[in-house]
Amino acid sequence: MTDIFSSPASTTGPFLVAALYHFVSVPRFESLREPLQALCDENGVKGTLLLAHEGINGTIAGTDAAIGTLLSFLRAQPEFAGLEHKESRASKMPFVRMKVKLKKEIVTMGVEDIDPNKVVGTYVAAKDWNALISDPDTIVIDTRNDYETAIGVFKGAVDPKTKTFREFPEWVKQNPGLHNKPKIAMYCTGGIRCEKATAFMKEQGFDEVYHLKGGILKYLEEVPAEESLWEGACFVFDERVSVEHGLKEGNHKLCHACRNPITAEEITSPYYEEGVSCSNCYHERSDEDRHRFRERQKQVALAKKRGERHIGS
Questions:
Q1: Which of 52, 67, 154, 306 has the fewest Cβ atoms nearer than 10 Å?
Q2: Tens of pLDDT along 79-118?
Q3: 147 SS3 class
Q4: Are strands 253-254 and 261-262 parallel, antiparallel or unpaired?
């Protein structure tokens, strides 16, 4: 069998990946969709940008010049003048297409009137994060979903095992023990979910609420591996699947049947069939599902032979 995990991790790939979000009131957000889509298409930028009344969120990839052009355009808009972003590299284009979407929320919690511009937790820089989460008076909470936490977490963190971010508020309400310690420290991939989560926690009466500025990505970028309290890899929402310390591309692949990250060991499972199933989803799918996925995988393989990229891959 070909070892599909053998390609080296890259920190110097030709594609620049920019992760960004900004909570700010944007009453005119709908009018920004078309010019943003056009600018991305003209410059070969791919990925996803979400626009809502509460701000912008997304991850995009392209050449350094193309990403620079797009970021300059965004920061020229009065609402996004203070926009920050995080950078990493990819050895190949990690997205298939560009989508600029209009949304009710830029990160969907489903709770009305949660506004990080009004109330939010205290930012903690990556260099200070270890001290906070090592404090015995601190409860550390991972605000990501179960398929993300499955491949990496901070040492000692509480994992809510949510399927979607919408489940997080109810999880908090069902866990009164979170009030047992004075400090709550929250983290997520890039910072957006834990920023909104801290706003929710403050509304729920928690006083000392903190969140990791820049998220796991900033921590992995800045904190040396030998000083790290991070265990595993960080799931990312593109075809790199995961990144590790120094933001090197990780060794996980994606099961295209269930969208869960899988390891080299899981590839050897009798339940794994490329594009069809893995040990995470085999027993949750029917034979009819697997037949459908096999047909799709055939089209993916045919497109690859033609030197094309199948959109379903």
A1: 306
A2: 999 999 999 999 999 999 999 999 999 999 999 889 998 9
A3: helix
A4: antiparallel
- Integer Cα distance of 193 and 195 in angstroms: 5
Rounded CA gap, 65 and 27, in Å?
Answer: 29
**C-alpha–C-alpha distance, residues 68 and 90, integer Å:** 16
Residue 287: its H or E element: helix 287-305
- How is 163-196 classified by DSSP, letter by letter? SSGGGHHHHHHT-GGGGGSSEEEEE-SSSHHHHH
Q: Give the C-alpha distances (Å, rounded to integers) separating 216 from 41, 46, 183, 194, 261.
A: 30, 23, 19, 11, 17
Burial (CB count within 10 angstroms: exposed 0-12, middle 13-18, buried 19+), residue 21 = buried
Question: What CA–CA distances, in Å, run from 196 to 160, 208, 215, 289?
Answer: 16, 15, 13, 36
Known catalytic residues are: 188
The answer to whether the CB of 184 falls within 8 A of the CB of 210 is: yes
Q: Measure the CA dihedral 260/265/270/272, to 10°.
A: 30
Q: Is 62 exposed, middle or buried (0-12, 13-18, 19+ CB in 10 A)?
A: buried
Spatial separation of the C-alpha atoms in residues 303 and 281, rounded to whole Å: 25
Which domains occur in the chain, in start order?
15-102 (3.30.70.100), 122-232 (3.40.250.10), 255-313 (no CATH)
The phi and psi torsions of 87 (rounded to 5 degrees) equal -115, 145
- The one-letter code for the residue type at 72 is S
